[in-house]
Design brief:
By secondary structure, the protein is of the alpha/beta class. The protein has eleven helices and twelve strands. An eight-stranded mixed beta sheet has the order 6-7-8-3-9-10-12-11, sandwiched between helices. Helix 7 (189-206) links the parallel strand 7 and strand 8 (209-213). The chain starts with 5 loop residues before the first strand and ends in a 10-residue tail after the last strand. Bound molecules: adenosine-5'-triphosphate (ATP) and magnesium ion.
Length: 327
Amino acid sequence: MSTPLLALQDLTVAFTAGAGGLLRRGRGSLVAIDGVSFEIGRGECLGLIGESGSGKTTLGRAVVQLVAPRDGRIRFGGIDLTALSVRELRPYRPRLQIVFQDPTESLNPRFTVEEILTEPLRLLRLGNPEGWRNQASHLLDQVGLPPAMLDRPPRYYSGGQRQRVAIARALATEPELLVLDEPTSGLDVSMQARILNLLRDLQGRLGLTYLFITHDLGAVSYLARRIAVLYRGTLVEIAPTRELVAHPAHPYTAALFDALPRFVRGRDPVVRPPLPAAPLPHPAGPRCPYALRCPRALDRCHRERPLRRLLAPSHEVACHNPLGGEG
Ligand SMILES: Nc1ncnc2c1ncn2[C@@H]1O[C@H](COP(=O)(O)OP(=O)(O)OP(=O)(O)O)[C@@H](O)[C@H]1O
Ligand SMILES: [Mg+2]
């Protein structure tokens, strides 16, 4: 088997509670990502779902080296990025990019579109400044926008156009891996579909690998061949999309699906009440992190943290009492 493009091994990220600062070691920290492992093959799209606060953005930021992990490994093309110095990391930065949810926040309002698109090239000192304007118009073309947009700031354009600009900027450094952090959730439904089409098209044309973070089961089913489910910083289930949607094994995955609009089964979306807020602080000790909320919890779940195990080909779950496991 070829080396996966991205491999996370026991990745742990902790924040100083409330302060916004990052701890390498220490007390009073909030463990936002707790020992997460998965791989993404070249050209693959892995979906990442989980309720608000489960750590999806933190995981994405750690992958693109915007947040330093406390423990664990991030291997990119077989190279352990966590072992590299800032200087050694430099050549890898262009190859990993992130697109955020809200282009209004992520695009500098004082810059023109051209300045936005060429900023990553300036910062990473890529290419020849004389060629940057041409590169910027080529980037616009790749995301279906006209070159005439280069000279104005993003406020002149619609939400959908701005998100295309954000995608074009992420492409400026010719990345291999894109983290897409809810790239369509700020847009109306028809615009969401167009951006998803664009992302799928770009993936095919440029051979991109995606980590696609979303709340939208329809979007993730459209783009991702496999889905990972995050619950309070732990990966509770990972499976091929169809298998996961048809047979969720972790009680949390099933509850999450019930809470999300169901575009996926071809019905009109049904809006369901959100899951109850997770109790804080982070459940310490040897129990399953979901045990206190789980309708299927056994005594064992309060004593022993479940390890991830294989249920079916490529379908792994961290649960002592998975759904469908009775027979
Ligand atoms: N800079 C920070 N400093 C301290 N805590 C943080 C920081 N960023 C995130 N957190 C905490 O880490 C946890 C995970 O947050 P994160 O934003 O990754 O969740 P998420 O799954 O992306 O949520 P959402 O779906 O709302 O975007 C939360 O408890 C959050 O409060
Ligand atoms: Mg987020």
